[in-house]
User: Fold these one by one.
Assistant:
Number 1:
Amino acid sequence: AQSVTQLGSHVSVSEGALVLLRCNYSSSVPPYLFWYVQYPNQGLQLLLKYTSAATLVKGINGFEAEFKKSETSFHLTKPSAHMSDAAEYFCAVSPVTGNQFYFGTGTSLTVIP
Amino acid sequence: DAGVTQSPTHLIKTRGQHVTLRCSPISGHKSVSWYQQVLGQGPQFIFQYYEKEERGRGNFPDRFSARQFPNYSSELNVNALLLGDSALYLCASSLQQGAGGYTFGSGTRLTVV
């Protein structure tokens, strides 16, 4: 079975500081991995995805994530936080041959001016 | 290009009633999936349809049903509504069946009173 664990339901960073949102997955074989962002009262927007190509994945808005098979992790980072980054972030996993996402419980990011 | 469109955006129903939610995929997309997002949690997979056939079903009761039409739009139906069905219902579409390339709509917020 697939599952995702997001460590830290709430993360606060100062504007300009490093953003690090943690995600660990559980899967018998390397899956596809995704990060989505959700702004209040909106749907999910894809930030980036890993589909077994390069392990360092660059996404939109300056975000990137690194797939580490040995640690079963896919942490999301951004060098310098902006106020507009304040939102809910979801990590998701999908089996390579599957057709559904398994989402984590989300991390709420607060950016302090 | 229009994205995934869902209607209505908000809905209030009474316990025991029936509800129909609608989704129009991106033009050319043949796969539609439905997810339920309860407040404070990650989205949970309900159904996937591809080429008008059900290709996946999550762990939801039989009160939940869906269908996909020849134009690839989709409906999600929920019978005998319970308070616990209050959630944001998200539709996602993709060109193909795999989960690697889904685009999400903004969702329908259902409140059951």
Note: The interface with chain B takes residues 4, 32, 36, 41-46, 49, 51, 90, 92, 94-95, 97-106 of chain A (CB under 8 Å).
Number 2:
Amino acid sequence: KAGVTQTPRYLIKTRGQQVTLSCSPISGHRSVSWYQQTPGQGLQFLFEYFSETQRNKGNFPGRFSGRQFSNSRSEMNVSTLELGDSALYLCASSLSGSGGDTQYFGPGTRLTVL
Amino acid sequence: GEDVEQSLFLSVREGDSSVINCTYTDSSSTYLYWYKQEPGAGLQLLTYIFSNMDMKQDQRLTVLLNKKDKHLSLRIADTQTGDSAIYFCAEKKGTGGGNKLTFGTGTQLKVEL
């Protein structure tokens, strides 16, 4: 089975712009979660989608949003980019997200905001 | 505390055992995980333990859980240079549906020859 894929792998944007990142989960997985990783804050949960609905949300401003499509692929969008949004954005998928259902991570998208 | 805590660095010699420690936050956490991250890569799931277990062994990896102290450890036997990476513990809180992991700060393991 193919793993979790994320596109693009690298992205450079300027302040004020917006960006969309994409995540394709492992085939059959219906839960997709997004995390932000920075040197200062570490790994922080952004949100989780399951069956096209946001099921969990972390403590991020409304500039961060996401969605999930019927094929379980997910996108996250960041509007009005700030320098502090520079980070590695990781996507993880799991079958359903319940119980001991484990999350498998993609390689991430490295976003640099100039 | 509010944060999942790990020591920042650990250095061991090849062939020795490594023990990485983690203090988590929520006594009701149901599942606890260990992930490995190599430079420029995503997170690789190593192992996990359910909260009603004290120990889990998986080849070279042994996980110990002390619920009373909210302490989790990962022991890597016969550590190899390929084990050099950052190791994260993570907790899944509560019993409700959904994925939300709270990660530790990560421990950088350096394996020396």
Note: The interface with chain A takes residues 30-31, 33, 35, 41-45, 48, 50, 88, 90, 97-106 of chain B (CB under 8 Å).
